[in-house]
TrEMBL record:
The keyword Thylakoid does not apply. It is a multi-pass membrane protein. It is found in: Membrane. It comes from the Bacteria. It comes from Paenibacillus taihuensis. This is Amino acid/polyamine/organocation transporter (APC superfamily). The keyword Membrane applies.
Length: 444
């Protein structure tokens, strides 16, 4: 029997567990190096855009709950090809994100066990992640909620520690490069620096779709709005406060993409076992993000199979409501992706990770376009006063599309991001061609 009955706060915690990953704890060093202190402005902008995307998805879910979430609405709004494109692009980006998180997990774990091959850790983490998903929705939500609480607790603890530093209650034991990011230093590389960092910043919010996909498990479907509001407001506040304190404690010039900004900021205080503690935090962050991505992309495959855009057998669920055949397909793709990550040079690995982020937020544009199309249609066809409303609006959707396009265009300004953009464009073209073939097959 399919297990249902998540509360809004459980879904919010699943969202936090799926969003806060190694990309934030480790990858923010790269965005800070590119943008400087203006990265804080970038996180507010990305938070606003993410909120708009979620609000639009929430309204579509409240008005017409669909098990396929955003890809189902793309199909309803623009036809079979759009649903095919949305679903498979999201699945591909999810597989790439999972492989990057697993490689990161293995690398971080090697810190304690330098003589163990990375492949052993990769297999172990992948098996554990798939095992959690095979437990079913209820157990999955409990595990993800636990990871989310750990990550939030660490970030809140860091913010409290930073506050003590700001107010002079504690002092660094080593010479510190700390300096307040005054107004004159907000844009050390100009607006171009912030613009080119926006794709990386947006990627810190990747995973919001997990909430949309999992919304079908809510006890009260109308609670999806409350879930998203609490989730994203909390996330933006924690992100911005934490990064502001990193900048105050370490100064933006002292940060790089090879070391966690949080480790760098705390290193001046000579805290015992700090490296191991934050290594453990980053591992928990990466693992829960990987588990959440696996859950959502396996559900998307089920939706694709039910609509005939994937083999019908992939829609099979077991007694626990687990899409086990979809999980097996994802496992096979993940094995290939991880293998490529180890064989290809580090720069190529970075390109693949970037392309996954670009595909993820390109899907957000399709979510907003679907909302605009369906909103206009429902306004024409129904004027019932009882129709559910959320905080989404067409004007906000257009603003969201503009912000996402600006962020993606910023990738053209940075060499490695340009390559990632090219890879994502190639993959999308391949999926689009496949969608045409499937559509032609169904016509005949």
């Amino acid at each position: 029997m399919h297990e249902k009955g998540l509360t809004w706060w459980q879904l919010a915690l699943i969202g936090i567990g799926s969003i806060i990953g190694a990309g934030f704890f480790l990858g923010t060093g790269l965005s800070i190096r590119i943008a400087g202190p203006s990265v804080l402005i970038g996180y507010v902008i990305a938070g606003v855009a993410t909120f708009i995307v979620f609000a639009s998805l929430a309204q579509m879910t409240a008005n017409d709950p669909q098990s396929g979430s955003f890809r189902a609405y793309a199909r309803i709004a623009f036809g079979r090809s759009a649903g095919f494109l949305s679903g498979w692009v999201y699945w591909l980006s999810g597989v790439l994100i999972m492989s990057s998180e697993i490689v990161a997990l293995s690398t971080f774990t090697e810190y304690w066990f330098p003589n163990v091959p990375l492949g052993v850790f990769a297999i172990a983490y992948a098996a554990l992640g798939f095992g959690i998903n095979f437990l079913g929705v209820r157990n999955f939500s409990q595990v993800e909620s636990a990871f989310a609480i750990v990550k939030l607790a660490i970030l809140v603890g860091f913010i409290l520690f930073g506050a003590l530093f700001i107010f002079g209650a504690i002092h660094p034991t080593a010479a510190s490069a700390a300096a307040s990011p005054g107004v004159h230093t907000w844009f050390p590389h100009g607006v171009k620096g912030l613009w080119s960092a926006m794709v990386i910043i947006f990627f810190s919010f990747g995973g919001i779709e997990v909430v949309g996909v999992t919304a079908s498990e809510l006890k009260r479907k109308e609670d999806i709005v409350k879930t998203g509001t609490v989730l994203l407001v909390s996330l933006v506040l924690v992100y911005v406060l934490a990064l502001y304190l990193v900048l105050r404690m370490a100064g933006w010039r002292g940060l790089n993409e090879e070391t966690s900004p949080f480790v760098t900021a705390l290193s001046a205080f000579s805290i015992p076992y700090m490296d191991s503690i934050f290594n453990l935090v980053i591992i928990s962050a990466a693992f829960s993000t990987m588990v959440g991505a696996l859950f959502s992309i396996s559900r998307i495959i089920v939706s694709l199979a039910e609509d005939g855009d994937a083999p019908r057998g992939l829609a099979a669920l077991n007694r626990r409501g687990v899409a086990w055949k979809s999980l097996l397909l994802t496992a096979a793709a993940l094995a290939v992706s991880i293998g490529c990550s180890y064989v290809l040079p580090n720069t190529m690995y970075e390109y693949v990770t970037t392309s996954a982020g670009v595909m993820l937020i390109l899907n957000w544009i399709l979510i907003l376009a679907s909302y605009l199309k369906l909103q206009g249609r429902s306004d024409e066809q129904s004027k019932k006063p009882t129709r559910r409303r959320t905080i989404a609006s067409p004007a906000a959707a257009y603003v969201g599309i503009a912000l996402i396009l600006i962020a993606i265009s910023g990738a053209l300004l940075h060499g490695n991001e340009r390559v990632g953009l090219g890879i994502s464009a190639a993959l999308i073209i391949i999926v689009a061609l496949a969608s045409r073939l499937v559509a032609a097959k169904h016509r005949h």
